[in-house]
Design goal:
mainly alpha, about 80 residues
Length: about 80
């Protein structure tokens, strides 16, 4: 029984790490989406040019894709 408990520690640790990464990823995703909304408002209010908008939007979308791809990877690498 003790050996079983010892073997369960790495699994519990991996699950705890996975949960923290998921929380951080979700916060990052929401932050990027908020920046995209803010960027759209700045464009609508003529605070930035179309070129500035497109450049910033492209970067934010790439960041969002990276976060979402990372999020998918987290789900597939944790033992159950």
């Amino acid at each position: 029984m003790i050996m079983h408990d010892i073997l369960m520690i790495p699994i519990a640790l991996a699950q705890a790490i996975n949960e923290e990464v998921e929380k951080e990823t979700l916060m990052n995703e929401e932050a990027i989406l908020e920046r995209l909304r803010s960027l759209q408002l700045k464009l609508q209010d003529n605070q930035i040019s179309e070129d500035e908008y497109e450049d910033s939007e492209a970067i934010l979308i790439e960041n969002l894709k990276t976060v979402r791809k990372s999020k998918k990877g987290v789900h597939t690498n944790v033992p159950k």
